[in-house]
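Working notes for the structural subgroup meeting. M.R. asked for a predicted model of this chain before we commit to crystallization trials. I am recording the input and output together here so anyone reviewing the notebook later can reproduce the run.

Input as submitted:
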Amino acid sequence: MIKNEYLDRLREFFTSSKFVKITYLLVFTIMITTIVASQNFFFQTIIENGISKKDIIAQKTLTVVDVKRTEQHKREVAQKIEPILVPAEDDFIKSNLETIENSVLQIRKKESTEKEKIDELNILFDLSDNPKKNFITDFLLHVDEPSLRETFDKASLSLVNILQVGITEQDYDKGNITNLIQNNLVTNVSKRQVSVITALLEQVIVPNLVVDDAATEIAKMNAQDSVKPYKVTFQKGEKIVFEGEPVTRLKRDALREAGYNVYELNWQGILSIYILVLLVSLIFIAYLKVFEKNFLEPRYMALTGMLVALTCITAVVLPTGFSPYILPIPGVIIVSAIFLNPRISYLLTTLLLVILTVGMQYEAQFIIVFTILSLIGMITISKIRYSRRFDLIKVGFNLGVAGVLILLSLYFIDKCLIDVSNYMILKNCIYIFINGILNSIVVLGASPLLESTFHIITPYGLAELGDHNQPLLKRLQMEAPGTYHHSLMVSTLCEAAAEAIGANPILARVGAFYHDIGKLKRPLFFVENQSYFSIENPHNKLNPRLSKMVITAHPKDGLEIAKKNGLPSVICDFIMQHHGEGLAKYFYNQAVQEEGAENVKEEQFRYTGPKPNTKETAILMLADAVESAVRAMKGATTDEIEGIIDKIIVERLNDGQLADSPLTIKDLKIIATTFSRILRGMQHNRIKYQENIAEEFAKNKIELPNKILDADLEKKIKELENSQNMPAKETDKTENIQNNHNDGWTNFDNKDL
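Returned structure, recorded in token form:
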């Protein structure tokens, strides 16, 4: 029993949607990892354990930088740079000399024995190694005070000269202090003073120049940057490597330049790529789950997976060293922005660039350029109106120009630091410009194919469906003209309201065109078509329940017609949801009158639904009811129109028909205001024209503008003005002319005014 229960749970897990989704995720991430890692197999592997497996001959002249020798030369240049010294604080050295001077003066003034004074001087000075120790001591104790002060003054001036020259650690260690002092003594120093000044300064002098490590390091880096790369040239036909030869760094670079794969398969690297792909995929799914739930449908995920896979395949099949700016990243930006939305496009492109940059070992410049470009593409595509497909070419041109500008800015920064080939700059700029335009052209041609393959309707596809020459709309116009014109009026209301609340106006308009195509199955059972065909209302001969079945069947009939004609699912939602689960009130009330309220339930006279679940379908439900109600009222005033609109919106709210839609109360207020404005325009009044307008012109002598009347018509009017003076025998002829003129002008007025 327990075993069976365990098997049932296991079977339930493996058949659950959660398991299916996890399986799809694993398959996708493994596939992308395999594609990115397959660069190790697309080109011939010629290295095994660091040894060349065959002789390789250069098919063209190759110039390769010898990185090893260049780096060695840079190190040698850096070692020759002397440390940069900067002066330290000198005030404490000068203050030490002043302290010694004051101490000597105090010792001289003390009333102590000679021996005590000498001992104090020995403590103050370290003269043990000085051969003139006795002379210096005697000079400091017994020379007259002016001479002593003069000696200290000259010592101070000499110290200033020495500090200006600077004292290094090397000078101090090598014992060069005495020579440094004597070379920088001031003038007019006696021989006696030289010995004393030298002894004094030796006591206070310390190194005042220290090494600036940061400045020294910068100097070494500048020296290294100035070293030109050591280049090695392999002429066409020359052997790059011999069979069995160890492949050095230089040989690897030459083989890579020649288009060979020099990487050996590394399982640790493959695992790292898989973890990155899995992490990126989870980030993308999490974003959709939180912010864009509608795009978690399999069709959108399949399109996204196809874009990522094709881009990765293109990156892999490109020869090693080929410019990555030819990759179809602009195409990914445009397709994802149109078929998904611009925000998802930016995220998808950025995450894809992360995979390519890491997996294909592209430079950081690559991800910078295309990340900025995807942001520009998101903004540019958001602003197009989708009225012309040529706008896509303009987007591609803009992306190409923007890519060139971004590349140039980055290369100009690089040229300030390193030597960048002008040829490479020009080549990459041309690649990215052509890439933008070429991708937009490809997307333009592939869009219809992608729409039909993934069953995703784009704004361009909607614009095509909105063409009144579409077969279904032509049928509606011919077989159900009342319904057709009703749909036109509803589409105007829907488009204006959708634009006012920030919904999709194109989708709302096109959905309104097709929402009643189910009436094509039984057009004569709908009142708007009966007057055109001049027939009696068939419902007069049917009971309310049968009439309800006929009327409420048109959404289901419309869905069948839509599927038969290949309409996208988003349009089918308009067909099925435009009545929601609303009540067929007319037939319900009629049934109550005939059968009694106790024998009739509202559920029996409701549409099958579902309720509207988007802003656009909810707008259609309201617009459909409002247009029909206003049309039923002849000459409705502004207050009456607004009253009808408010009544219908409140009824739908109270009936719960808008419970599944994302419309807010604020949206409903804006929709009501928009409906009122549009319907007031539809209900405008017209003046009644005179039946015999030619006689009025003749009576009042009205001169008509030349732009409206041609010469022949003016001649006829003049003949009418002179009709009173014409002979009786021409009266019949004049009347015929007048009648012809009246008919023609009346027709002109009715057609154009």
